[in-house]
Amino acid sequence: MSDPKRFLITSALPYANGPIHIGHLAGVYVPSDIFTRYLRIKGKDVISVCGSDEHGVPITLKARNEGITPQEVVDKFHNINKKAFEDFGITFDIYSRTSNKMHYETASQFFRTLYDRGVFIEKSSNQYFDPETNTFLADRYITGTCPHCGNDNAYGDQCEKCGTSLNATDLINPKSVISGSKPVLKMTKHWFLPLDKYQGWLKKWILEEHREWKTNVYGQCKSWLDQGLQPRAVSRDLNWGVPVPVEGADNKVLYVWFDAPIGYISATRELTDDWEKYWKDKDTRMVHFIGKDNIVFHCIMFPSMLKAEGSYILPDNVPANEFLNLENDKISTSRNWAVWLHEYLEEFPGEQDVLRYVLCANAPEAKDNDFTWKDFQARNNNELVAIFGNFVNRTLVLTNNYFNGHVPERGPLTQYDKETLKEITVLKEKVEKSLDSYRFREALKEAMNIARLGNKYLADTEPWKVIKDDRARVGTILNISLQLTASLTIILDPFLPFSVVKLREWLNFEPRQWDDAVVDPLLSAGHKINSPELLFRKIEDKEIDFQIEKLLLTKKMNREEESQLNPAKDNIHFDDFTKLDIRSATILDAEKVPKTKKLLKLTLDTGLDKRTVVSGIAEYFNPADIIGKLVSVVVNLEPRKIRGIESQGMILMAEENNGKLVFMSPAESVSNGSEIK
Hints:
By secondary structure, this protein is of the alpha+beta class. Helices cover 42% and strands 17% of the residues.
């Protein structure tokens, strides 16, 4: 489909249990908005939909902890995030929510269609049940001792201390978060989407027909498909969410992974009565903007749902970004290690475009990237101020000074003049090619090259010197510089919309369409311009120091809180310690455990034998980098099955306050099997 009639742009629904931070913006919403604005300037039929994802266990937990209802939680953050997006210039055609009536109706209809066709598998299984509250417990409503590291506050789906993914039944001494009582296993029925039945189709559709997808997206999909897909539950026992619309499904709701993407459909239905042409017409191109944690849901699960229903189009592309770190540390909402959008807008009023520029210029398109306040300052001062702002200011000030604010006549053109004007077309086409390929960093760089071109042109022609002897030549120079400036209001509009509005006001220039960027001239001789102000201001060291100090204070508070939450454990008898058999060992092989983010399967030479240990260190170590590493391991720990793998021991690690893990290794080389006493 080379030239679609219309575009449907979806942006990942932010979870309504907290505010938006710069990681969300860099990963999803800045590229989504740039692409949508670009299509609109090109005159395309395009709608952009988003909204709050408002169901799931984390919201019910937050409500319980704060003593309010789940609806009050989502109302609060839906309003905060909706306003922050609007203030930041994110131009969704609708920002809906999954707790509204239209969504409940749409999600229910979608489930019922698949149910009536016999798509789902019904299965009963034992799950934990709280007898005191008479409710089934979601994994996050169960805590206990981690079988891997001994953490007494592990959740039923994951131990947040060692990072190991768990099943609730793996926990030692499990208890209900709601009542504190010991849960019991009880039979319950759920419906499953048989993803394995779509395996062959997905392989052909993704691996053969969409080789143009970004490497990180294609690679993650291939990994999942190579491992083999399994049926996935679309319902769960909970009282917050879209009720499962069949008899015998009391207190069961649609699983949030199933219900959330249907939010794109319900938002479109809410926006327009013509919603079906955007979702069911083959002449529509649908593009999902998401972060890498949502790749599997948008490339495998949601397309399988759409395929099963049969009448919907499939996504043409899913240009997912990687993660953005903050000051060399992972952004963490629980640790408040983030730059929140609503706080940025308060502390840097009117400077939305500075953050948009930095997040695009430093976007984690192919790999995780890092945001630092020093880089933020440098890009503002050295690029926005010194390149774009400087060129615009010199052009408009000189025009006002020498020609009373009127566009001067253009005289005979030199070869250099002609080459400069021709370069606008070259750069415009480069920007267009990059945007069409979802390479936003590259597109922004080429767009800024027009301002660089203008700066070089003024520096080379030196109109402030030529004015003494050749006023007509200066008129030509400024006429060409004004043409470059007007082109910038079109080419940079998707990236820096607030700055472009100011610039158009100074130029007395109406919004134009994309292809008009190469029209010559855009500003005719005699056209009156207004007096400019500074387009960008220099950001001072003290402002950046304040932001860094604020983060350092956050880190200090986290350390103090962690020391209170994790005090030294109670004393033990010496005999208890001597029961531990700790030996030196060498890592012979390491590989990631499929479908987990944090687990590595390690093969160790303990000097006693060669054995397998599963360790939750995948986020900190590349498997290839730790082969041959000398480590310490508890060799007499009772074996435990973790994700179907029998783990025969535990690697000893030190955990720093920032969560970083470090191997506990002998200072000198020792033989495998040496006892550590």
